[in-house]
Each structure stands twice: as C-alpha cells, then as structure tokens.
Amino acid sequence: MFSHTFLLNQLWKIQHEEGYLSDKAIRLLSRQTGRSWVDLEGVISFYHFFRRKPAGRFLIFLNNSILSEFAGFPEVLKAFQESTGAHLNQTDPTDTFTLQMASCIGLSDVEPAALINWRPFINLTPEKVHHLIHQLKSGTDIDDLADRPLSDAYPNDEENKRLMIRPYQEGMAISKLIRMSPDEVIKEIMEAGLTGLGGAFFPTHLKWQSCRNQADPEKYIVCNADEGEPGTFKDRFLILKYPGLLLEGMITAGFAVGARQGVIYLRGEYQYLIPKIKDAIRHFKNEGWLGNDACGIPGFDFDIDLVIGAGAYICGEETALLESLEGHRGEPRPRVHYPTERGYLGKPTVVNNVETLCTAARILEQGFEPYLNTRHPDSPGTKLFSIAGDCLYPGIYEITWGITVGALLERCGAVDPYAIQISGPSGELIPASWKDRMLGLHDLRCGGSVMIYNRQRDLLQILQNYNRFFMQESCGVCTPCRAGNYMLSVQLRKMERGLASTEDVDKMNDWAKLMEYNSRCGLGQTAPKAIIQAAQRFPEIMDQHTRTKNAPFDLDLATSAYDRIINELR
Amino acid sequence: MKKVTFYIDDQPCQAEDGKNFVDAAAENGISIPSLCYYPHIDPPLATCRVCTVAIGGQPRAACSLKVSEGLRVQVNTPDLIENRKAILELIFAEGNHFCPACEKSGDCDLQHLAYESGITYSRFPHTFVDRIVDFKPERLVIDHNRCILCKRCVEEFVTDSGKKVFSYHRRGGRTEVNVDYELEAEMSDKELTRAMRLCPVGAILLRGKSESRPFGDRKYDKPESQEAIPLTTPVEKPVVPAKKKVVATASLAGCFGCHMSMLDIDLGLLDLIELVSFDKSPLTDIKRFSRHVDIGLIEGGCCNSENIENLEYFREHCDILVSVGECAIWGGLPAMRNTISLEACLEEAYLHSPVTRNAQHIIPNHEDIPKILDRVYPCHEVVKIDYHIPGCPPSAQHIWKVVQNILFGTKYDVIYPEFKYD
Ligand SMILES: Cc1cc2nc3c(=O)[nH]c(=O)nc-3n(C[C@H](O)[C@H](O)[C@H](O)COP(=O)(O)O)c2cc1C
Ligand code: SF4
Ligand code: SF4
Ligand code: FES
Q1: What is the pLDDT of residue A336?
Q2: Cβ of residue A346 closer than 8 Å to a chain B Cβ
C-alpha cells in the first residue's frame, strides 16, 4: 500500500519523468493515496518547485538573494532573458527554456548562481550566460557544462583545534558504539556540551535523552538538511565532503535513542548531492554499518532514507519539516508537543541539523576532550561558518567559539566592511564596528551564515530583499506573518520612494514588533528583526531615507495610470 | 475533574484542571477575543493570533493554553489589549471586508470582535488584493474576499474515508482556501449548513440559504449586547459653550448617506444649531471657506484629483478633521474597484458596457474634469485625520456625540447597536 509519507519523493519522480504534475497524475495519485484532489493540490502548490504546467526543456532557477543582487543579479537576469527569449516566470516560444527565480540556493560564495535542470552554475556573468545558453541550444550535454560547487574550506587557524575540517576516516566513530551503551553515548555528548548547530542551540544530549525516555519503541532520527537560511552553505559542504560522517552521526543518534529508522530531509536545491548520499548509504550497507545488526551490534537495526524537499524555507523549521515528511504542506505545528514526544508520524523523533550530527560523530571519534579543550568558558567546541559577501576569501571556515567579530573579519579578508548579517536575515544585523563582540553562545549566536556588506551597500536594498524573501517563504498560516510582511513592504517602498516621514518609520517599527510578538513560529518572529535592528543600530542610514515632515500625497503617481490610458486612446 | 486555581491579571479564578484557557477565562467572566479557536479541534489551530496573552511577559496564544494550578496569565493589560486590537485591524486590512454588502453582517465573529474592541479604522494600509468569489461548487459559494484563513473548515471537514474537503492552496500572502468540487457535491445539506455556520466570517455561503435571521435580529444584534463599547465613558450633561463653534462638511467619493444620517437627529438639529454654526458644506451650499473652522467632517474617500484638492483644502482650514463613515475611513463600497485595474474599470464603464449610452465610446477626458485616481484612497492616506467614526452610515447619534465630545469635551457613550460598520 502506498503510504502518504514520502509523497514528496513520489511527486518528484513524476515531475522528473513527465516534466510537470498533470491533472492525470494527480487523479492517479489521489486514487493511490486515498487523498482528495484539493488536498493534493494544496500540497503541490505549497512548494515552489512543483509545477502544474509543462516547462521548457531547461528549467532555470536564478537565485535572487541579496548577495546575488550585489554580485550582479540584474545583469545576469537580463542576459538570461535575452539569450533564452524567455520572460521571467515564463517559457520561451520554442519551449526550450523556462526562467524562474529562487530564494537562496546555498551558493552564496559563488554568486550569482543558478540551477539549471537542478545542476549548479556559479559565478555567472552576462558573457558566461550567453555562452552557456548558446551551448545548451547547440546540444552540449548539460552535465559537461555544470559547475562543481566545492567551496574553499579554511580549517581552524589554531592547529590543535581542528575538529571538523580534518582528514576523515570512515567508520571510526561508529566503531566505538559496539563497546558503549546508549547512555554512555549520551553522556559523552553531554560532557562535550554539544548544542544544536542548526541555529537554535538546544543541548543535543537533552534532545536525545528525552527521545530515549519515551516508552514508544518506534522512534526516528531526522536529519535536517534543508539549509534554507540565506547565506549559509555549510551543510552542503559537509554532505559533499564528508557524507559518511553524516551517516555516522545519524547511526550514533539512532543507537543512543533506540531508533530503527533515520531520514535525511534534503532541500530540493541540493538535488545534485543525491548521488553522493545514496552512494554513501549503499557503501555503509555493504560494510554492515547500516541494516540489521548495524555496526555489528546485535539487535541494532538501523536504516536511512532520503526525502527531497521542494523549495520551501519554512520546511527547515523542525515541525514544518515533519509535516512535509508526512506528505503535507510544510506548516509548522502549534507548539503542543516536542518532536521528541510526538514527531514524525506522531512517534518520538530527534530532529538534528547536519552539522550537529557530523559533530556528534567527530566527538565520538576523537573523544570529548578535544572538543572541551577548545572551550571558551561558555561555549565549547568549534563551528563552521559560511562566509560570503564583501570579503576576499569567501568560503567555509572552522572557527573556535569566542572569536571576535574583528578577528573574523580579518580572517576572511573583509573589504571595507560596514555591516554584517550574522545567522542570516532572521539573525543579527550588526555594525562592523562591533569588533570586540564575540561569536558564541554567550554573546552573538551564529547558526553559520555570515554575510558581509561594505560601505557602498544600500541598507534599504538589503532590508527590501529580506522582506521579499520572507513574503515569499511565509507558510501563510498565521495572520501576523502572512499579512505583516506585506505591511512592512509597503513602508519600505515608501522609504525607497523618499515619501516616508519619521512617523512612517515609527509605524514600521511598531508593526515589526507586532509580528515579532504575535507570530506563530520562528519565521514570523524573526522576519522583522533586521528592520528593528537597522533602526536601532544604523539610525543615520535610516534617516537618509526618511523625511522629517509628513510627505505630501503623491498625486502624480496616483493619476499616472489615468494619464497613460487617456494618452494611449488619443 | 479536579478544580484548580489560576490567576488572570492577578485575580484568582477557578476551573477544571487542563481546561482550555479561553473557555476557562469565559467561565470566570473574562472574555478573550478568539476567531480560529473551535472547542473540539485539538490541538487548537492557533492561526489568527487575536487571542495573544502573556505569561511572565512572554506572548502565548490563549487558545493553546490549558489551565493548571497556580498558572498566572496577563490578559487585559493596556499593551495586550492594544496588541490584540492591532491584529484584528491587520485582518481587516488584509481582506476585502465590505460589511454593508455581506450576508454574514451581524452574525460575523470578526465584525463582532472589532466592535467589542472599539476599532474605528485600520492602522494598516488595505491590501486590496483581487480575490475571487468561487461559484463553481454545486451549492456552496466561497468568497475569498472575506476568508480570514482561520483553517477551521480545513480541519473540520474530512469525509468518513479521511479525505479533506477543504484545503489551503499556495502559501504566504497568496494562501487561499479551496473546496474539493467532487466531495462538495456529495455533502448533505446538513453538512453544508454546518460549513456555513462554522466559518467565523462570510466566506462560506450556501446558495439560497445565506442566513435565516434578518438584519437587526442577528446573533450580535441582540439586546444582551447593548453595553457600551470600550472607547466610551458615561454621558454627562453637555456644557453650554460661551462661543459657537464652526463646523464644515464635505462629501467626496461617497453617496451622501452620511450627510443624510447627520440630518437624522431630527429635532436634535435645533439644539445643535444653538451650539454650532456651519461654514462650507453641502448642507449650507457654501462653496468656499469664509473663515477658519473648528471641525471638518468628511464623508467619502478620494477617487479623483478633485477629491484630493478638496480634502487638502479642508485640512488647511480645519483645526480638526474627522473621517465619517466607511468610505472616508478606508474607501468603502467605491473601493470595490480597488482590486481591479483602472484600465479595466474605465473600459467596462465607458467602452464595453452594454448599457453605456455613449455612441462615440470614449473615456471622458478634458482639462476641466477631474482625473480618476488609480484607486480609491482613504482620507488618512492623503492628509492627517484626527478621528474616525465608522458605519455605513454611522448613526446620527454616534456622529453628533463624537462631534460634541471633540468640541465641548462632553462625555459620551456609544452603545453597541449604535456602533456599526454596516
Ligand atoms: C524558519 C526556520 C527555519 C529553519 N531552518 C533550518 C534549517 O534550514 N536547517 C536546520 O538545521 N535548522 C533550521 N531551523 C531550526 C530547526 O527548527 C531546528 O531547531 C533544528 O533543526 C534542530 O537541530 P539542531 O538542534 O541540531 O540544531 C529553522 C528554524 C526556523 C524557525
Ligand atoms: S510565522 Fe506564521 S505564517 Fe509565518 S511561517 Fe510561521 S506559522 Fe507560517
Ligand atoms: S473559509 Fe471560513 S472557515 Fe474556512 S478558513 Fe476561511 S474564514 Fe476560516
Ligand atoms: S483564537 Fe487563538 S490564535 Fe486564533
């Protein structure tokens, strides 16, 4: 019987085979799954990448994140339009190219970037685009043209504190499991002081322990590989570089909590990583590290499945992710139960970020002492940062918690930095002058994304880009986020047109706080943060866009439509 | 079940352990606004967020809380009241809620909550998104203009074999609720009526059976709710002023209904002219201001360039400017065109309409006639407006009580049935 779980994989399969999800396909799925038409339409329309209409032979998704904008997005978009003959969100007359935009696709260090038939194309310029499209038209195999996005990786500058970016020997971590009890594994993780590296910093051992304590014998380990926060690409790096380490982390978690099944939820933007993961899983099965009596531990049966997301940032939120895994719209669940109590299919579930699981495996492999030895009094361990924007050496950095903002800027060769976005648009917008502030649990928390803006960058443009991102990505379930983001966009547009009074800016701030206070999940609560912080931390920039007195009504604009219509008639 | 003691704004209350907080508060005489909350849907939907309360300063949706011994919740602090009011205003601004044209008016939970919290206008710009009215279902009509996306229908209507009858479609600001046409056709009349009742607003309608009770006799029109709305204080005797105050009025893109309503105080008019005199107004037919006036009452929003000039002229000459009625406040019925492009409006009116008596088929234009604006603007988006009196039209009592209060500091009291959006 076809279960409604993994519906996403099924939809992908149909779409890859037929190019889109036709009425016929939905009817068939409806029969197979016992779900109504309107229900399936609801799921399909939630995800940006699912299509109900045929696309051209080449489906292009150009990234519109702020770093892409600053790296030349407008020119590249124009080049795509000219060379393909397709308008945005449309297919060209010959049905060859379909051109669309996508929120950050995890290639921030090599912007502008695009996905064409789900393969990455990086460092785009108008010339490169024209050449590329020409090649595609003349029949060159797309796989020969696609780029290989392996970011530059910078191991920890303190040699004795290299925990993650270091040589990896497969099977080392899980080979320890056979001599340990689940409690000992959890104790090891606790002593290391590992906290969730997906951005929420929840102590990992508590999560595992809570799941372990549940009476229900059916438990799940879910790896959150949705990496949707603009500016972050560390999980992509980890999967590309150490896929085995991730599997070892999942096996470790499975052993610790008593789960039999693991699932990796990989964002649709990273489809080119599927072979990597599948190969690793196959290899682990051959080695006996997955399957029955996994890792040679009698009675420990553990398998890992892969589910592919389809373009929804909100699915990184753990309960939305679980909804999505179950084949529903990715709407966060109301906070009534923790996933460790009732998660996937209502069963106790651990949801961990890719990096958290990889780090758990590293801790097991090397013991917790090295992890502790890196210790800043309040935040042990190291962390991967994805650094991009206005710096000479964008890429993946392993840092020791406690590093100062100043030192970080120096390490990546920041050029005339003015503002830094830490942890992505939902995180902290700080002035580059906060040189002595530290990155760590005790000061500035960072989930991995670091975007550097130089003095020439327009703060208002940044805020408008974030705002569009959140409008695009809000799940739409709760009022403050669904409507609030739009209201903020109106005020930002007023500022852009030089028509905002100080009163308008104050209103925007109030509305931003309203969203922060009332939204149902983390997305809506954090979406307006950058606006609030910009007003607090960059008042001089906000003032430049603000009139002190009430602006007059823009009669010219309001009558321009009428004038145009009358003129056209004449 | 065991009774427990919990605290609302430090007042001890009692209810069964584990009871939903909204219900428990109601049992203790404290009503917390709620829209999506529907008692037996568990876990609660928690989508509308109008029920926000706080525990130790941290916001929580009241509908998702359960009472327990010693629970302390802040409910009616000034900040929380204002916060909930803002969310309600946001809901109004997001949809197209033309109360005067709505079948559910008087029975609508959203409208009722807005009265109760004394909303006179929305602080947010209306989105005026073009939403459809779906007539495709056999017997239901789904009016997306009014849907507040509470999700009740989505959760509640599932067939015996577990199929969803309603579902959300798309996401973010483009989210809408769709009904499954095949399943809808199979539903019984009883089920369909239940769907209509379940919807807190007028988004789900059953053809030929929109509402059984007439206006004036509906759920929220009933006498029990004849209490004062929160923005009011008890009536005191008017102070007779030493000097007459001057009033001016204007009708912009309105229907003159508000002016008719002003006249509806009947003999009260005789008392009124003891207190005030009129300057520029359609009531006096004075065309230009002859002096600076104390208060200007504006009916109607701005649909053309002349309205804008007129409104700016009023702002210059009035100390206090009041938007009277829905059209002035947010566009009202004329703003129904705001979801349609100006081009399409003009073409329909002057070129394609079968009833246009306009042999030349031209869109009127001349330097002497005002230009039509791209959409109808509420007055407060054009000039600063000091007060808003809602209603379509507002009752005469409501208008003059507010005016006297503004001019003479007379304390006044608007009772529930006088306070209307329709
Ligand atoms: C809007 C939103 C998006 C999120 N996106 C991600 C994500 O892409 N990857 C991730 O690991 N965690 C994401 N999270 C955090 C997850 O909800 C969850 O805390 C995390 O997966 C837990 O794993 P950890 O404890 O290992 O960090 C997101 C949270 C929110 C509110
Ligand atoms: S805040 Fe609300 S609308 Fe926004 S993503 Fe979360 S649940 Fe959805
Ligand atoms: S149609 Fe009515 S019940 Fe359904 S979501 Fe909209 S407002 Fe709620
Ligand atoms: S009633 Fe609580 S969120 Fe809607």
Answers
A1: 86
A2: no
Question: Which pTM was predicted?
Answer: 0.95
User: Which residues neighbour A165 within 8 Å (Cβ) at sequence distance 6 or greater?
Assistant: A153, A154, A155, A156, A384, A396, A398
Residue A146 to residue B198: CA distance in whole angstroms: 53
Residue A23 has pLDDT above 80, yes or no: yes
pLDDT at B229: 66
Nearest-by-CA chain A residue for B126: A487
Kindly indicate whether the domain formed by A158-371 is annotated with CATH number 3.40.50.300. Answer: no
Domain ranges of chain B: 3-76, 96-221, 245-418
A477 touches ligand 2 (CB under 6 Å)? yes
Q: For residue range A520-534, list pLDDT tens digits in order.
A: 999 999 999 999 999
Q: Of A388, A99, A11, which is closest to residue A231 (Cα–Cα)?
A: A388
Over range A437-457, report the average pLDDT: 96
Is CATH 3.40.50.300 the right assignment for the domain spanning B3-76? no
Q: Is the pLDDT of residue A19 over 50?
A: yes
CA gap A481, A489 in Å, rounded: 12
Q: Where are the alpha helices (DSSP H) in A374-528?
A: 405-411, 459-473, 479-496, 502-518, 522-526
CB B179 within 8 A of CB B142: yes
With a cut of 50, which residues of chain B have pLDDT below it? 232-235
What architecture is the B96-221 domain classified under in CATH?
2-Layer Sandwich (3.30)
Q: What is the CATH number of domain B245-418?
A: 3.40.50.700
CB-CB contact of B37 with B51 (8 Å) = yes
- Binding site membership of B149 for ligand 3 (Cβ less than 6 Å): yes
CA of A235 relative to ligand 1 center, distance in Å: 12
Which of the following CATH numbers is that of domain A459-557: 1.20.1440.230, 1.10.10.10, 3.40.190.10, 3.20.20.70? 1.20.1440.230
**Which secondary structure element, helix H or strand E, spans residue A63, and what is its range?**
strand A58-63
Strand bridging mode B293-299 / B318-324: parallel
Answer whether A450's CB lies under 8 Å from A230's CB. Answer: no
* A155–chain B nearest CA distance, Å: 40
Q: Which helix (H) or strand (E) is A397 found in, with range?
A: strand A395-400
Q: Quick check: B94 and A483 CB within 8 A?
A: yes
pLDDT (tens digit per residue) in B322-360: 999 999 999 999 999 999 999 999 998 888 877 766 567
Ligand 3 atom closest to Cα of residue B195: 3
Name the CA radius of gyration of chain B, rounded.
Answer: 24
B-contacting residues of A 305-334, CB under 8 Å? Answer: 312, 329, 331, 333-334
Report the pLDDT value the prediction gives residue A2, as an integer from 0 to 100. Answer: 41
The CATH homologous superfamily for domain A58-145 is: Glutaredoxin (3.40.30.10)
B53: β partners: B60
Question: Which residue on chain A is closest to B311 by alpha carbon?
Answer: A553
Cβ distance of A473 and B172 shorter than 8 Å = yes
Q: What is the mean pLDDT of the segment spanning A473-483?
A: 98
Cβ-Cβ contacts under 8 Å for B138 (sequence gap 6 or more): B181, B184, B185
Query: Can you list the positions of beta strands (E) in A404-448?
Result: 417-422, 428-431
Residue B176 C-beta-side C-alpha neighbours within 13 Å:
17
pLDDT tens figures, A394-435 = 999 999 999 999 999 999 999 999 999 999 999 999 999 999
Q: Which atom of ligand 4 is nearest to the CA of B61?
A: 2
Return the residue whose CA atom lies nearest to atom 4 of ligand 3: B153
Angle at which helices B305-317 and A555-569 cross, to 10°: 160
Q: What is the pLDDT of residue B234?
A: 45
Supply the pLDDT for residue A371. 83
Buried b (16+ CB within 10 A) or exposed e, A77-112: bebbbebbbbeeeebbeeebbbbbbbbbbbbbbbbb
